[in-house]
Amino acid sequence: MNPSTFRHHSLGLKSILIVANNEWRAFTTNKGVLVSMLMQPVMMYGLLVLALSTNISSVKYAGHVIPYNQYALVGILAFFMTTQMSQAMYRATVDKQYGLLAIKFLNGVQPWQYLCGMSLFPSLGFIFQSIILFILGILSSGIYNVVYYFIALVFALIILEFWSSLGILISTKISSYQKRDLIITLVFIPVSYAAPTLYVLPHHAPLLLKMLTSINPLTYQLNAIRSIAYGNFNITIIGIGVLITIVMIVATQIILNRMQLTLSER
Length: 266
Known about the structure:
It is a single chain. This protein is mostly helical. 72% of the residues lie in helices and 3% in strands. It has a two-stranded antiparallel ribbon with strand order 1-2. Helix 7 (146-171) runs parallel beside helix 11 (235-258).
């Protein structure tokens, strides 16, 4: 089936609600994913960061001297954006593998509407984890400023569209969960740990680490989120984070608009 002739039909904004409603149902019924999302903040912040903070009292960042747990908490917040990429990949892979993507496009869902609707699942997961992280931060004095934290959270939801779109984009090239898991291992882990989420990149850092950090989009997004979370509000840094997101959304929309769709995959 070649659905290209149907791609000019649109249900309008109603199609976003239809796709989003499916994602809402998938999110609320997947108890295993919710438990996993609950445990990630507990393990990463409640165990790892608080343990490290007993040896690392504070760090210097952008003219601030910040307690380590406050610095790392924002890093973990950004880290959760990348983990939600796997959820977007999972949901988009289901659509592609069972022909649901072709059916949605056939019935008037445009690529940009599909991206908007599909972003609900990772957005809900990110909000859920951010709330758990906030509670842990409050209990351990890990929040630099409550108001700035929630402003940074809103901004991070915008940046999250980069990772949701990237996950959907990658899913257009894979046809099985085994390939998805392999890509997550090869892409997600290096990207997540090659950005200064839990450490401050020193000037004397190894050249390889500096190179990986400089080409890592999470580095620039993390700098933008920290700029807000610590009250700096550097417009240039924030603008770079938004620009990267817009480029990824546009690229994914173009690929979705041109990809060949079928009602089944073998």
